[in-house]
């Protein structure tokens, strides 16, 4: 599985280390909340709300440089809008991948 | 340019804030996690540019644009490239940035917003706008990409409103992105007089003058002490 990275954050920070850390802290704070909201809606089978939550998580996935994962998330969001949960397991694996990465930052 | 950021995601707001800080021409006045808060702010404050997320719960970016009167320039920020076509339906939208936003793409967006401002300030362009040369007895103002001809004698009052001016004519009122100074240069000085820092009047339309105010149509306009002698001089006093 592809590994998250901080390339994007480094590229847009202009070398501002304080900002990089601030952004990482924000992601570490916001990602678990968004992930929990996603799991809540997914377990309640609220597909529209789940799609909204996937949409929100997509930005974090792209910020962490996960290009293939982003494509899976995009497709999963479309599936949810169309009423099916195909790619749910793959998406959940992406979330776990990010969780593991953020824990070691 | 003074701007605000509207995005329900804190991470996105932090990134846009940082990108704005990297350019000297942008001053962030505020950031909002939902469109309703931003509308309340805009009712009290004027901004030149809004970074607007499309995909927000309850009230989308497009709902927001439809709601506000005279929207300033807007740069859409979104993870949804599919909304680009819809974005072109709005003359106030100057660019469309797909997240994650890179510095290069952000700078290009700012250049577009600045170019948009220059065009509108120099006489023609988008959104509720501005005046064109007065060679005859008329001028043109730009409203939503349409140049509308106004007969100068029909103008009875021009009022400054922040970055905008309101041009009142016999038939209709127009809100234009311009300044009193600019429009004053286009108007015949024998017909128009600046009586207050916020008002230019057509002196032929004055109904009466009382103390430090004039009545034009139904508008009572203050006359500043320094401008009163010139006004009195220009009137055909008995």
TrEMBL record, chain A:
<dbReference type="GO" id="GO:0004672">
    <property type="term" value="F:protein kinase activity"/>
</dbReference>
<feature type="modified residue" description="Phosphohistidine">
    <location>
        <position position="55"/>
    </location>
</feature>
<feature type="domain" description="HPt">
    <location>
        <begin position="16"/>
        <end position="105"/>
    </location>
</feature>
<dbReference type="GO" id="GO:0000160">
    <property type="term" value="P:phosphorelay signal transduction system"/>
</dbReference>
<protein>
    <submittedName>
        <fullName>Hpt domain-containing protein</fullName>
    </submittedName>
</protein>
<keyword id="KW-0597">Phosphoprotein</keyword>
<dbReference type="InterPro" id="IPR008207">
    <property type="entry name" value="Sig_transdc_His_kin_Hpt_dom"/>
</dbReference>
<dbReference type="InterPro" id="IPR036641">
    <property type="entry name" value="HPT_dom_sf"/>
</dbReference>
Automatic annotation (TrEMBL), chain B:
<dbReference type="GO" id="GO:0003677">
    <property type="term" value="F:DNA binding"/>
</dbReference>
<dbReference type="InterPro" id="IPR007492">
    <property type="entry name" value="LytTR_DNA-bd_dom"/>
</dbReference>
<dbReference type="GO" id="GO:0000156">
    <property type="term" value="F:phosphorelay response regulator activity"/>
</dbReference>
<dbReference type="Pfam" id="PF00072">
    <property type="entry name" value="Response_reg"/>
</dbReference>
<dbReference type="InterPro" id="IPR011006">
    <property type="entry name" value="CheY-like_superfamily"/>
</dbReference>
<keyword id="KW-0238">DNA-binding</keyword>
<keyword id="KW-0597">Phosphoprotein</keyword>
<feature type="domain" description="HTH LytTR-type">
    <location>
        <begin position="139"/>
        <end position="237"/>
    </location>
</feature>
<feature type="domain" description="Response regulatory">
    <location>
        <begin position="2"/>
        <end position="114"/>
    </location>
</feature>
<feature type="modified residue" description="4-aspartylphosphate">
    <location>
        <position position="53"/>
    </location>
</feature>
<dbReference type="InterPro" id="IPR046947">
    <property type="entry name" value="LytR-like"/>
</dbReference>
<dbReference type="Pfam" id="PF04397">
    <property type="entry name" value="LytTR"/>
</dbReference>
<dbReference type="InterPro" id="IPR001789">
    <property type="entry name" value="Sig_transdc_resp-reg_receiver"/>
</dbReference>
<protein>
    <submittedName>
        <fullName>LytTR family DNA-binding domain-containing protein</fullName>
    </submittedName>
</protein>
